[in-house]
Design goal:
The protein is an alpha/beta fold and about 230 residues long. It contains 11 helices and 7 strands.
Length: about 230
C-alpha cells in the first residue's frame, strides 16, 4: 500500500523502533501461535481489551514489530483505531496524522497516510482529532478501507478501544471476524472479560484467543520510554 515517498517522510525515530531480545522472543511466539498454529485465522485481526489501561495497544505494537520481522517477507499493516486515545504513533515514534480520519472522512488515499516502520511493516495512525469519533465509523467507508488493506497486505493488525467502554470495537468486530482480547492478569475481573467476549461474539466476531498481560510482562524497552 505504501510507496517510497512515504518511506522518505517517516520520522527518524520510527526507523529505530525495535524490540529487546526477550520481548522479541515472546511476541514472535505469540505471532506464531496466532498465525501459525491456527489455520482458520484470517488476514485481519482485531486487538482490544475489556476496559482501559490493560495493554492492548502495547500488545498490538509488539506483535506487529515481531511479526513483521518473523513473517519472512510478508507485508504487515498496523492500524490505530483507538480514536479516543490513540497511542501507537507515540510508541513507534511515528506521525499522529494524516491517518484514518483523513482517509475515512476526507477522501485521502490510503497510500498517502501509510508510514513505513520497517521493510515489512506499514503503520496507519488515527489522524487528526474529530469532535465525534463515531463519525469515522459511519457508512461503508470503513469496510472498504479494511478490505483494501486485506487485499494489499498479508496480515493486518487493528488496535481498537476498550470493548466495554466504547462502541467502536463492536462495529469493527462486525467487519473483522477474528479478535484477540487482552486482559490484565492482576486487575481485570472475569465478569468484564465475559461481558467483552459476549459483546464481540454478538457482533459476529470469533475470539481467536486471550492474552494475559501483567506488570512483569517483558514489553519492549523503547515502549517503557515512550509510555
Amino acid at each position: 500500500m505504501a510507496n517510497t515517498e512515504q518511506t522518505d517522510q517517516r520520522p527518524q525515530d520510527a526507523a529505530r523502533a525495535s524490540l529487546a531480545p526477550k520481548a522479541r522472543e515472546i511476541f514472535a511466539g505469540l505471532w506464531a501461535t496466532l498465525f501459525g498454529s491456527r489455520r482458520d485465522i484470517g488476514k485481519s485481526v482485531l486487538i482490544c481489551s475489556a476496559d482501559r489501561g490493560e495493554g492492548a495497544s502495547t500488545i498490538a505494537c509488539g506483535l506487529a514489530l515481531a511479526g513483521s520481522a518473523a513473517a519472512a517477507g510478508a507485508r504487515v499493516a498496523l492500524v490505530d483505531f483507538n480514536l479516543h486515545n490513540p497511542s501507537l504513533h507515540r510508541l513507534l515514534g511515528a506521525n499522529p496524522s494524516p491517518g484514518l480520519r483523513e482517509i475515512l472522512t476526507r477522501g485521502l488515499a490510503p497510500e498517502a497516510a501509510a508510514q513505513r516502520i520497517n521493510e515489512s511493516l506499514d503503520f496507519y495512525a488515527a489522524g487528526d482529532s474529530l469532535p465525534d469519533a463515531q463519525l469515522v465509523l459511519a457508512g461503508p467507508a470503513i469496510a472498504e478501507f479494511l478490505n483494501m488493506l486485506a487485499d494489499g497486505y498479508d496480515h493486518v493488525l487493528i488496535d481498537a478501544p476498550a470493548v466495554n467502554r466504547f462502541p467502536q470495537a463492536g462495529v469493527l468486530a462486525g467487519i473483522v471476524k477474528d479478535v484477540v482480547l487482552v486482559a490484565h492478569t492482576e486487575r481485570t475481573p472475569l465478569e468484564a472479560i465475559a461481558a467483552a467476549k459476549n459483546h464481540l461474539e454478538s457482533a459476529g466476531a470469533t475470539l481467536a484467543g486471550v492474552v494475559l498481560n501483567q506488570r512483569t510482562y517483558p514489553i519492549p524497552s523503547f515502549l517503557y520510554r515512550r509510555v
